[in-house]
Amino acid sequence: MATDDTQSGPLLTLDPADILPPVAHYTHVVIVPAGHARVFVSGQVGTDVRGEVPDDLKAEARNVWANIANALRAAGARPNGIAKVTTFIVSGAPIGPISDARSEVMDAHRAASTLLFIAGLSDTRCHYEVEVEAIIMDAEGAGR
User: What's the whole-model pTM score?
Assistant: First the structure.
């Protein structure tokens, strides 16, 4: 079967022709080449460094993705190295704010993605939680 293949740095993305094309900004398959260090970022919620959660859902969602970007940076990775995103949304919360915040951080980069609606999060003040898997790349986009 034909696929829509794209290269994003060392990550190869595939959207097989025999699967419904992605309905949002993600890809069905990401291949991480051998020899690339992998980074696993635990689920991040919308708390700031003081543990506060904004009342505004857009600000909460931006905090989620800022926390992810900070965690990646601490590991020597960048958002364009994200291979997989898992997003948890508390039922009833809108998708828009977390989707917009993701786009701000990831720009045109696509990753494999799973979105789940759940009853609640362990921090009941929060509406969103996102975990990612990424690879570490050097400044030229080659993996380490």
Answer: 0.87
